[in-house]
């Protein structure tokens, strides 16, 4: 069972916007050396919506090959086209990913029945375990708890990343699924400690890109029921959690990775490099967290 701190890995790029494969290799090793429990490759933080299919495939393949079974790799295979999500998931299974993370279809605004049928089709197209991903603030569609419970009864759907930041909603879902082995992950760094302390299994994290050791320790403490330690670490990281969303994700976190000397500032349009007015804010938060 996958638990703990799971990084929603950025895809490093050159200033010209090309994928920087050497930097990607460095970042994966950085996480393997600093306690990250699993890696999401080409998830939404990794900018797959502006990648070609071949690039998306290559990022997943290269991360799987490099990790080589040392920790689980979760492939980002979501799309707002069901057929594309199916194709991406089948590819991820083919190259050896351990799980896939499938975001709710964005812009289309499907009904709850449409969401059920979408994820059912993805789950039935491959035997790769599917983790659902609900982030209504980015997709304009909300996967309701009732639909999650319904989907949890399908044999190949094994978990949910809940990025709503609504801890009470997460607790309701945990209570209703407590007799199952369905996995529940936070997707909101600010509230992840409380989410895990009340029964969650881990956090799929943006902050872990630059603070992998701290996020690993936070999640481990929360999983052990050590509220004091978890909140102590979280308090130190709170300015960083907030600073990494001063502009749309992954703009700030890619700049932070650059500030650590791990990658260039590359990002793809329509996203742009972090505005200079926020540089000091992000840098100060990184200093407060003990990163630089």
- Per DSSP E runs of 2 or more residues, the count of β-strands stands at 8
- CATH architecture field: Alpha-Beta Barrel
CATH fold field value:
TIM Barrel
Percentage of residues in DSSP E strands: 5-15%
Radius of gyration: 18 Å
N- to C-terminal distance: 33 Å
Percent helix, as a range, is 40-55%
As residue ranges, the low-confidence spans are: none
Question: What would you give as the CATH superfamily?
Answer: Aldolase class I
Label the structural class.
alpha/beta
The major pleated sheet works out as:
8 strands, parallel, barrel
Order of strands, widest sheet: 1-2-3-4-5-6-7-8
CATH top level assignment: Alpha Beta
Count of domains: 1
Mean pLDDT: 97
| Morphology | globular
Function: Catalyzes the condensation of (S)-aspartate-beta-semialdehyde [(S)-ASA] and pyruvate to 4-hydroxy-tetrahydrodipicolinate (HTPA).
Main location: cytoplasm
Pathway: Amino-acid biosynthesis; L-lysine biosynthesis via DAP pathway; (S)-tetrahydrodipicolinate from L-aspartate: step 3/4
Keywords: Amino-acid biosynthesis, Cytoplasm, Diaminopimelate biosynthesis, Lyase, Lysine biosynthesis, Schiff base
Any overview of this molecule?
This protein is of the alpha/beta class and 292 residues long. The chain has a single domain, classed as Aldolase class I (TIM Barrel, Alpha-Beta Barrel). It has twelve helices and eight strands. It has helices spanning 21-33, 53-67, 82-95, 112-124, 136-139, 145-152, 167-176, 192-197, 212-223, 227-243, 251-259, 279-288, and strands spanning 4-8, 38-41, 73-76, 99-103, 130-134, 157-162, 183-186, 202-205. Helix 10 runs antiparallel to helix 12 and helix 11 (251-259) crosses helix 12 (279-288).
């Amino acid at each position: 069972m996958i638990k703990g701190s799971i990084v929603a890995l950025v895809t490093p790029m050159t200033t010209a916007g090309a994928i920087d494969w050497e930097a990607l290799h460095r970042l994966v090793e950085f996480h393997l050396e600093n306690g990250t429990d699993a890696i999401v490759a080409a998830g939404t933080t990794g900018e797959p919506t502006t990648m070609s299919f071949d690039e998306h495939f290559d990022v997943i393949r290269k991360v799987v090959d490099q990790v080589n079974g040392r920790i689980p790799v979760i492939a980002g295979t979501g799309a707002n086209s069901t057929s594309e999500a199916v194709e991406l998931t089948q590819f991820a299974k083919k190259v050896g990913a351990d799980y896939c993370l499938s975001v709710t279809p964005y812009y289309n605004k499907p009904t709850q029945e449409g969401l059920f049928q979408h994820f059912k089709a993805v789950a039935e197209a491959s035997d790769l375990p599917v983790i659902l991903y609900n982030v209504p603030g980015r997709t304009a569609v909300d996967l309701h708890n009732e639909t999650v419970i319904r989907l949890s009864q399908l044999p190949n759907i094994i978990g949910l990343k809940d990025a709503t930041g609504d801890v009470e909603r997460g607790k309701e879902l945990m209570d209703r699924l407590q007799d199952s082995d369905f996995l529940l992950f936070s997707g909101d760094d600010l509230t992840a400690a409380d989410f895990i302390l009340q029964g969650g299994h881990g956090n799929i994290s943006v902050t872990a890109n630059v603070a992998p050791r701290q996020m690993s320790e936070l999640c481990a403490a929360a999983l052990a029921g050590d509220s004091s330690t978890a909140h102590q670490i979280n308090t130190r990281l709170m300015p960083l959690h907030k600073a990494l969303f001063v502009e749309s994700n992954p703009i700030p976190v890619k700049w932070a990775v650059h500030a650590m000397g791990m990658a260039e500032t590359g990002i793809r349009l329509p996203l742009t490099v972090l505005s200079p007015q926020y540089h000091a804010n992000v840098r100060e938060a990184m200093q407060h967290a003990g990163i630089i």
